[in-house]
Design goal:
The chain has helices spanning about 45-50, 145-150; strands at about 5-15, 20-25, 30-35, 55-60, 75-80, 95-100, 105-115, 115-120, 130-140. It has about 160 residues and is mainly β. The radius of gyration is 19 Å and the shape is elongated. The two termini are about 25 Å apart.
C-alpha cells in the first residue's frame, strides 16, 4: 500500500539542522504514526512521503516555507515582567501560553532585562531548513474513526 490521504503511516525518522546537529529522532522509540493528509507533520515532509511504501527510505530537505515557516518579526515582543502573574523569576528559555485574538499561543522568553522580557511566538524551528532521514515502517488504511478524529489511534498514534 502506498502513502496517500487517509492512510496511517508509521515512520522512523531523524531530523537534523544544516549544521548536522540532531534536533529530534525516533531512534530507540516506537515509530511515529500519523494520519496522512491531516496536517500532523510539516507539509514538505508529507509531500515527500506521498506515494511511498513500507520499507522505503528517503532523505528529504525541507525549506522553511514547507516546514515551520519563516521567522516573523512581529511575533517577537517585549512585555512587562509583571505580566507573568504568579511566576517568581522569569528566565530565558521559559515557555508560557499567551492568550491572543487568534487563540492560545506558546511563547518562549528569549531575554530578560530590567522590568521587561522579550518573548518569541515563532515556532523554535521557524526559518530553519529541516533535514529528514526517514524509513517508512508501515502504511495501512485509516479506520473511519481515525479519519473522523483526524489522527492515528493505537501504537505510535493517539490513545483514547
Amino acid at each position: 500500500m502506498q502513502v496517500a490521504p487517509n492512510t496511517v503511516v508509521s515512520i522512523h525518522y531523524t531530523l537534523t539542522n544544516d549544521a548536522g546537529e540532531t534536533i529530534d529522532s525516533s531512534a530507540d522509540r516506537e515509530p511515529l504514526a500519523y494520519l496522512h493528509g491531516a496536517g500532523q507533520i510539516v507539509p514538505g515532509l508529507e509531500q515527500e512521503l506521498e506515494g511511498k511504501s513500507a520499507g522505503d527510505k528517503l532523505q528529504a530537505t525541507i525549506p522553511p516555507e514547507l516546514g515551520y515557516g519563516q521567522q516573523i518579526d512581529a511575533m517577537v515582543q517585549e512585555v512587562p515582567i509583571d505580566a507573568f502573574q504568579g511566576v517568581e523569576s522569569v528566565e530565558p528559555g521559559m515557555q508560557f501560553q499567551a492568550q491572543t485574538e487568534g487563540g492560545p499561543l506558546t511563547v518562549t522568553v528569549t531575554k530578560v532585562e530590567n522590568e521587561t522580557a522579550t518573548v518569541d511566538g515563532n515556532h523554535p524551528l521557524a526559518g530553519e531548513t529541516l533535514n529528514f532521514d526517514v524509513e517508512i515502517v508501515e502504511v495501512r488504511e485509516a479506520s473511519a474513526e481515525e479519519v473522523e478524529h483526524g489522527h492515528a489511534h493505537g501504537e505510535g498514534g493517539h490513545q483514547h
